[in-house]
Amino acid sequence: MTPNLPDILLGQSLALAAPQPPEASGDYMAGRLGMIALLCALAAQEAERGIAARLWENQALRDLFARAAGAYDEPLAGALASAGARADEDVALSALDLANAELRRLLIALHEAVEARGDAGLDAEILTLYRAMAHARRLELPAAMSG
């Protein structure tokens, strides 16, 4: 499971609300609060860029599927053209993540077909898209917390 922003925030709330025993103080408490602070900083980045990254990624995947449908839709039972024609209507994080999970499963199936066929051009395009997707979702450690 990849934790999403609501899960992280709920976990932080529970961690802060749970009473700690007296022996959980000193270095333990400092480390615990430091970890919660780090998660808050990462959650802030996700809140700022998460929806835009998901919208971009979902559309980039759909655009790829629309382009590849002519050559690869038959072995994938028409799924590429169908996915390529859709759009994100609900921009809630949960809805975007659900759509993204389906699109990523289809990307894996397409990539397998591309590799089996030895299509170097589309393989390179997919690998470039993987890198761009990772870059769009990156979270950076705040300088004050990185060491």
Give the tags.
5 helices
Shape: elongated
Total beta strands: 0
State the helical fraction.
Answer: over 70%
Decide which structural class fits the backbone: mainly alpha
Number of helices: 5
Q: Give the distance, in angstroms, between the N- and C-terminal Cα atoms.
A: 27 Å
Strand content: under 5%
Order of helices and strands: HHHHH
Summed over residues and divided by their number, the pLDDT gives a mean of 91
Low-confidence stretches: none
Q: Provide the gyration radius in Å.
A: 20 Å
- Biggest beta sheet summary: none
List the helices and strands and how they pair.
Layout: H1 5-17, H2 27-72, H3 79-85, H4 93-117, H5 120-136
How would you describe the overall organization of this protein?
Helices cover about 75% and strands about 0% of the residues. The mean pLDDT is about 90. It is elongated. The longest helix is centred in the middle third of the chain and has 46 residues, at about 25-70. It has helices spanning about 5-15, 25-70, 80-85, 95-115, 120-135. The chain has about 150 residues and is an all-alpha fold. Helix 2 (about 25-70) crosses helix 4 (about 95-115) and helix 2 (about 25-70) packs antiparallel against helix 5 (about 120-135). The chain has five helices and no strands.
Task: Offer a quick outline of the entry.
This protein is 73% helix and 0% strand.
